[in-house]
Amino acid sequence: MNAVLRYENLSAFYGASQILHGLSFEVPAASVVCLLGLNGMGKTTTLRATMGLVDRTEGRITLNGRELAGPTFRRAQMGVTLVPEDRKVFANLTVEENLEVARRPTGSGRDFSIAEAVEIFPRLGERMGQKAGTMSGGEQQMLVVARAMLANPAYMMLDEPTEGLSPSYVGAIAQSIEEARKRGIGVILVEQSIPLALSVGDAFHVVENGQITRSFARDEALADREGLERMLTVE
Ligand SMILES: Nc1ncnc2c1ncn2[C@@H]1O[C@H](COP(=O)(O)OP(=O)(O)OP(=O)(O)O)[C@@H](O)[C@H]1O
């Protein structure tokens, strides 16, 4: 069976409020699936539900046929990792220490090394001895993405990784996604930047009010870029 992360009719709740209403989609290994949509539509909740960080879910999420369930650490052990929007680094550790503690070698021969992470994010190489908490927001974002890659997950979820980043950093994020793909990692990208999404995405789902209302394969999205942009603009 080919590796796949599959969402089947996923609903999610915070207390009594139902946020997701039956999402179904899948993320094959080595593919990049983009969740697009206006603010508050349920994209972040989809990622949080994957990690077991919502109050309650219905439906199923499976990883290679095995149900993804239980507490967050167990899901991480099964191979999914989330880079949330809030850019948490260990502020009092240096960049190098942050990278070192994130390493989870799998011995598969495809593991990311710190040297490779630094090749993608040269800025981190220049700052190895600096306390991570003293770096700029953009630099901290590079660090959290590098840390996620060093954990060698099967699936990596990135929640608006380019928000507030300068264009040079956006390029580094795109490169890190490509590197992840080369190693067979599947990526879910929540992104407001259509150019970035179109540059890396294989499939695109528009999330509206907790449901997937439109889906596009890569060539459809490229052919109707303006339609996609219109759909994601507040009137
Ligand atoms: N902890 C929570 N408790 C209750 N409601 C929540 C909680 N977190 C999010 N929500 C609600 O869930 C809905 C979906 O939010 P979500 O963060 O998933 O949207 P999003 O599409 O990721 O948008 P954004 O880009 O703003 O993060 C919103 O109406 C939000 O108010």
TrEMBL record:
Instruction: Give the matching Gene3D superfamilies.
Output: P-loop containing nucleotide triphosphate hydrolases
Q: What is a single molecular function from GO for this protein?
A: ATP hydrolysis activity
SMART domains the record matches: AAA (SM00382)
What positions does the domain ABC transporter occupy? Answer: 5-234
Keyword ATP-binding attached: yes
A Pfam cross-reference name: ABC_tran
Q: Which CDD domains match?
A: ABC_TM1139_LivF_branched (cd03224)
Instruction: Give the record's family classification.
Output: Belongs to the ABC transporter superfamily.
Record-given protein name: Amino acid/amide ABC transporter ATP-binding protein 2, HAAT family
- Organism of derivation: Paracoccus denitrificans (strain Pd 1222)
